[in-house]
Design brief:
449 residues; mainly alpha; 1% strand; globular
């Protein structure tokens, strides 16, 4: 089963490449293929390690569960791509990136695994940069950052491989380099410089790949490695997560408040939500792990809902700047609701799902430091103000020149995801009350894998 999971994404990439000129067929097949791979990841269960050419291949159950979850979100985005056109190669690049990522995670920290991880990220970046937009030097800068992170991880992998089977001990240097490289690729503070422009691009596929699939997989993988290769620094990592998460949340809130485009608000909201997850995972309380992972799940849904909503609005009114959104509700009502529901959830505003996790997080922090809790709660008001500015414009009764009706299928998909966030906000125990082993694995990494 493990080998099947590792091969299917490349088969899917070939199929959607052949169908790239048939937009509806390509979108449908790509969406179904993403769901198929998600099902295979879940059906595989606790599959034993596979030995191939002397290499052990193993995907831990929590990694399988979180990748399957993000693939469901990717499936929703791919389904909308026939009405919200992406680059013809975006779907192919998405499956190639997924395939390389699965191989990298299955191989672990070997040098080959690091190279495959870099290949996966490059595929994701190609999907992002293929989206229409003004020319910039951002891709060159990102390439330099990715190469730098790869050098750190390759150095760590070489130390670990060289010391295996010998009496040499790499000490803490190898784990530190490995963690630092993963941290750079995840886009957390202070390495958000390459992450935000990627999420501001006009590509929902790229946003889900980098904002959900990559960040979820890397973060879960780091947490699992705290018991293995990162064990020498397992006391340091939670502390770094906590304080870097605070900085990420504050930077995300400030950045969202000063944006003039909805895509920019989305990018910084996503960054701030990642900060909330990092704070929870680094807090060290009895509920912090489940809280952090739940925040990640809600973040993925909010990012996808808002991304679909923003792209639908852009296609309807012609631009995503706040000024062009005047009266947009009367041309694209479902897209507006999807954007606001996803955005307010990412901002942690009631009664959306993000509020339930943020409220629990701030209450947990307040028990240790009331000043930090007040400061972080105040930070969440800033992105809410940005979204309020958007809402004050979209509901105006004014003519919208050169506009057209929203694509119905795409708008419905975005609205369904937004409604799910509202349901989870009104019924906070909905996710945890679901029965089944995969729900437990999604919410806790302590489940045997």
């Amino acid at each position: 089963m493990t080998l099947t999971i590792l091969i299917v994404p490349f088969v899917a990439a070939g199929i959607v490449y052949a169908l790239r000129t048939l937009r509806l067929a390509c979108a449908t097949v790509a969406s179904l293929a993403a769901l198929l791979i998600a099902a295979l990841l879940l059906i595989g269960g606790d599959a034993p390690a596979l030995v191939l050419l002397g290499r052990s291949l193993y995907l831990a159950a929590p990694v399988r569960a979180h990748i399957a979850f993000t693939l469901v979100l990717l499936s929703a985005v791919l389904l909308t791509s026939w009405q919200l056109p992406e680059d013809p190669l975006a779907s192919t690049l998405a499956f190639m990136a997924l395939g390389f990522l699965l191989w990298a995670l299955a191989l672990g920290t070997l040098s080959l695994g690091v190279l495959l991880l870099v290949a996966s990220i490059l595929m994701m970046l190609m999907a992002v940069t293929a989206a229409p937009g003004p020319a910039s030097l951002w891709p060159v800068r990102v390439l330099a950052i990715v190469i730098g992170a790869a050098f750190l991880m390759l150095s760590a992998a070489w130390m670990l491989e060289h010391s295996a089977g010998t009496s040499q001990n790499p000490g803490q240097l190898a784990p530190i380099l490995l963690f630092l490289g993963s941290w750079v690729l995840m886009g957390a503070f202070p390495f958000s410089v390459w992450y935000v422009p990627a999420l501001r691009s006009d590509s929902s596929v790229g946003r889900v790949l980098l904002g959900a699939l990559l960040s979820h997989a890397l973060l879960v993988h780091i947490l699992l490695q705290l018991e293995t290769v990162l064990a020498p620094i397992n006391a340091l990592v939670p502390v770094l997560m906590f304080y870097a998460g605070i900085a990420t949340l504050i930077l995300g809130g400030i950045g969202a408040a000063v944006q003039r485009r909805v895509s920019g608000v989305l990018a910084y909201l996503s960054m701030g939500s990642l900060g909330s997850a990092l704070i929870a995972l680094g807090a060290g309380s009895s509920v912090s792990e489940a809280l952090g992972l739940t925040t990640l799940l809600y973040r993925g849904v909010g990012l996808t809902a808002m991304s679909i909503g923003v792209r639908t609005l852009t296609q309807s009114v012609g631009d995503d700047s706040l000024e062009t959104m005047r009266g947009a509700f009367h041309r694209a009502p479902m897209a507006v609701l999807a954007t606001l529901l996803g955005g307010f959830s990412l901002a942690g505003f009631p009664p959306l799902a993000g509020f339930t996790t943020n409220f629990t997080l701030f209450r947990m922090i307040a028990s240790q430091s009331a000043q930090w809790a007040v400061a972080l709660a105040a930070t969440t008001i800033l992105p809410a103000l940005a979204l309020t500015r958007l809402a004050s414009r979209v509901f105006l009764v004014v003519p919208v020149p050169s506009s057209r009706r929203e694509p119905r299928t795409a708008a419905i998909v975005g609205l369904v995801l937004g409604a799910l966030l509202l349901l989870l906000g009104l019924w906070p125990d909905a996710l945890s009350s679901l029965s089944g082993p995969w729900t437990d694995i999604l919410l806790s990494l302590t489940v045997a894998s």
